[in-house]
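Entry:
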Amino acid sequence: MKNIKEAKKNYDNIEIPAELKDIVEKEFKPKSRYMYIPKLVAGVLVFFVVGVNVSETFASAFSNIPFIGKIVSVISIHKEKIDSDKIINTDTPEILADKENIKEVADKINKQIQDIVDEYTKEAEKHIAEYKEAFIATGGTEEEFKQKNIKVDVSYDIKSENENYLSFVLNANENWVNAYNVSYFYNINLNTGAHITLKDILGDNYIEIANKSIKEQIEKQILEDENASYFGYNVKSINGFETITDSTKFYINDKGNPVIVFDKYEIAPGSMGQVEFEIPKNK
């Protein structure tokens, strides 16, 4: 998954001009078009490699999402691949802008997103093939493998938006294994074009502010919910949360507060799933 992380790193380093605030409000109405993609991919697990002959069916559709009118428009690109042993669905955002230099920036961001999706689905297809070969080699049948109903989904979730910023999450996951379920967080200042940081929202003491809030929330959850458990707290065998870093993932909610997100198993047992902590700006 190194290439995926590299693509995300490249996105974070994109330099974006300040003219975004001058873009005239305009609603984007996409024209219908059809795209044929010869190889779209899916899945994840590690065993042995095998080539599989399948018939591929692709469907591509575009739908307008009118969540930003003043700065940019966003369309959702849907692709579907169905073959004999898996279904792959991808819904990815494409950011659009009219002004030429802003369009160049939007194109760079869109490419980073597409690189992530392509790399993830490429690895997914490879590992599904490996899993299938191992399954057949140990006595399973083609029909039994088909009945596993393996599905791969890539989608995005708009967390908040206004005339000043856009916050959304790109999610990639499979219904049959959790190890390679990943999320990528995008927080874009639409006035300056910069990637928004926790420091931008919480100030110079953002690490201290976030750490204090997270620890307080963990302790409160443990006291109030008997099912809540965190490493280093009521699960003493593993070191738990200590501090956030500059690479800590977050999105911005409708209140304008950052919500810090930790992956499954990162600071808590798997039963807790992905855990989130809203950090109020006024603290």
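The first helix runs from residue 2 to 12.
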